[in-house]
Amino acid sequence: MLLAEQLWSYHHLNQPLERADFIVGLGSYDLRVAARCAELYSGNWAPSIIFSGHLGKWTIALWDRSEAEIFAEHAIARGVPANRIKLEPKSTNIGENLIGTRELLHAENVNAAAIIIVTKPATERRAFATSQKVWPEIKTVITSPQISFQEQLHGGIQENLIHEMVGDLQRMKLYPDLGFQVFQDIPGDVWRAYEELIARGYDKHLIT
């Protein structure tokens, strides 16, 4: 698991929080993201939440409604008023999450200068690199559930987390040239861990 934890530490930015206009919860299989959004709302870090996400590779077999709807229900159960939540239920990847959120705000003539993006710990860097490409004009802080690698590994999709992290590192390498993300330096030891994990069979989330 040391190789996998190297990737997790690279993906996990751990940025300090700053107050914002909206909390943007990126949909996924991990309901702890919704709980983190509710925690931030309760802490007055922002006055409203936008949950973004349709159904993806891991969630299409879990739920019969969009990730955005499921996350909203989870946040409401934790005390967030329903009228402080907006939904963007169509997107299927991080780029679409952010573009869809931006379009939702523009359609409602809402001006936002800063957002807090909430995602899984292991997708913080990808969310950051994507936001800087597709929505560079807005100030962003990236955060996630305050959990350890082991806690994330044993909740949600378990061992498939490693496949996901390997695939996301590949995307970190490829996506800048495709115009999807800004460049992120990948240290040599992280890339070697990535190659070793592929050699061990963690390749289910790779782009072919």
The largest sheet has its strands arranged as 3-2-1-4-5
State the end-to-end CA separation: 25 Å
What's the CATH C level? Alpha Beta
Helical content class: 40-55%
- Rg of Cα set: 16 Å
Quickly give the CATH architecture: 3-Layer(aba) Sandwich
Count of alpha and pi helical runs: 8
Order of helices and strands: HEHEHEHEHEHHH
- Give a quick account of the main beta sheet: strands, pairing sense, barrel closure: 5 strands, parallel
Q: What is the 3D form?
A: globular
What is the subunit organization of this protein?
A: single chain
Instruction: Supply the helix-strand structural class.
Output: alpha/beta
CATH superfamily: HUPs
Strand segment count: 5
Q: Give the CATH topology.
A: Rossmann fold
Question: Whole-number average pLDDT?
Answer: 94
How does the SSE layout of this entry go?
Layout: H1 2-11, E1 22-26, H2 32-42, E2 49-52, H3 67-77, E3 85-88, H4 94-107, E4 114-118, H5 124-134, E5 139-143, H6 149-153, H7 160-178, H8 188-199
Parallel strand pairs: 1-2, 1-4, 2-3, 4-5
Helix pairs in contact: 1-7, 1-8, 2-3, 4-5, 7-8
Offer a quick outline of the entry.
This protein has 208 residues and is of the alpha/beta class. It contains 8 helices and 5 strands; from the N terminus they run αβαβαβαβαβααα.
Q: Could you walk me through the main structural features you see in this protein, from its secondary elements to its overall organization?
A:
The longest helix is centred in the last third of the chain and has 19 residues, at 160-178. Helix 3 (67-77) links the parallel strand 2 and strand 3. This protein has helices at residues 2-11, 32-42, 67-77, 94-107, 124-134, 149-153, 160-178, 188-199; strands at residues 22-26, 49-52, 85-88, 114-118, 139-143. 45% of the residues lie in helices and 11% in strands. It has one domain: Rossmann fold (3-Layer(aba) Sandwich), CATH 3.40.50. It is an alpha/beta fold and 208 residues long.
